[in-house]
């Protein structure tokens, strides 16, 4: 069947191809994993000498773990398989440790980040102005630039969207204005009102000579889009690719997904936030009740960082040198000064964990309140202690969670953290109309973060993420106003609620907490 015939039939007509490939990939993973187990069993029984060698190997792995710089939670979760299955656990750890795919991506990303540094520079006058307003934020911006290469910007307009529904029409309107280029990078894309409306504009813009690049995460191939979908879009003049497409090869780099949501138009306008390109995100399709999501549109100087974040990710799999100069944001002095912005990207490689540092800094420097929305609550020790300490020193810490979860196992796990937080004075609420997918921190009427970073291990350690910090910008009041409005639709969680769960759910949550760093 030709690509043209497939387009006429629509993507729904090729679902069997998607699921057929998914089954093939899953079976390939299982076969490879089975071979590893078989090797372990064979070597274990082969001879006492071989077994002794692998026991020594296991001891060396444990010593390496204890002396490494990894998060202590990850060390603990690896101890379990190593202690229970000394040979297999050690082999599995070493296999993950030496994965070439992960190292290749890390090396390429470091090179690309170096290439974009000359195009994303800190304006010293902006940093000095911020330092004069707040020594704490000045020092934090220095940290973000030195260790994350994320400059602080001024002269940027922001528009906050309390729902994906609100964002939808503005995305379409801004896309229609595109004259030079459109960059899209998303975690999920699925055919429907949202994506189809955008796609029609992208096709038209490509015909007009606008450069259109679209990248989405390769996990979509497992259930949402066929493997050849990028080829269909390329026939319409859209440069399209999957990030890290799933292949039948057992590799740890498949754990590092591109969870970012970035839309950049002509270097003038950027969107980011929680919304993906599927209909539930704009409440055109109901999956888990009402879908509460948030996003932000930026216009002005801060857009520059999102342009180059996209280009870095795009070029991980490219060999041809990028023409970075042609994508510079146009200079403008027409936007009035209204606070400061720090757009940032998060990488699973490296030691800084920028997404986590952003949240910790807000918790540790708050004077009055920190209000949080997150769909998942899977905390490491450091984040738990930061939340607890903030509440214990009198900060009003509130967390809004979903009432109708999208992942029941993750929700059961999240509830194992509830009582420790509640006992410390953290207030927890559940959004009764449905599912919260927003990722929001807002504090003291001065700081707000809108982006893609959840309060879980996947976002804080495993995924590529992005977000933007707003400081003393007028739109922060809109973020807090929406938070208060959302609270009116929530139910308060109490310490007794945990024990109202069924015993199986409580057991599942406690068992999963052992493996939380891998979730």
Termini separation comes to: 39 Å
CATH superfamily of the largest domain: Endonuclease Chain A
Largest sheet: 8 strands, mixed
- Please compute the radius of gyration using only Cα atoms: 24 Å
Range of helix content: 40-55%
Query: How many individual helices?
Result: 20
Overall mean pLDDT score?
88
Strand numbers in spatial order across the main sheet: 9-16-15-14-10-11-12-17
CATH architecture of the largest domain: 2-Layer Sandwich
The gist of it:
This protein has 20 helices and 17 strands. The protein is α/β, with parallel strands linked by helices. Helix 2 (15-46) packs across helix 3, helix 2 packs across helix 5 (86-97) and helix 13 (354-365) runs parallel beside helix 14 (381-392).
Describe the structure.
α2 packs across α3 (48-67), α3 runs antiparallel to α4 (72-84) and α15 (408-415) crosses α20 (503-514). β3, α11 and β4 form a beta-alpha-beta unit. With 519 residues, the protein is α/β, with parallel strands linked by helices. The model is unreliable at 1-22 (pLDDT under 50). The chain is built from 20 helices and 17 strands. Helices cover 47% and strands 17% of the residues. It has three domains: 14-98, no CATH class; 102-340, Endonuclease Chain A (Endonuclease, Chain A), CATH 3.30.870.10; 354-518, Endonuclease Chain A (Endonuclease, Chain A).
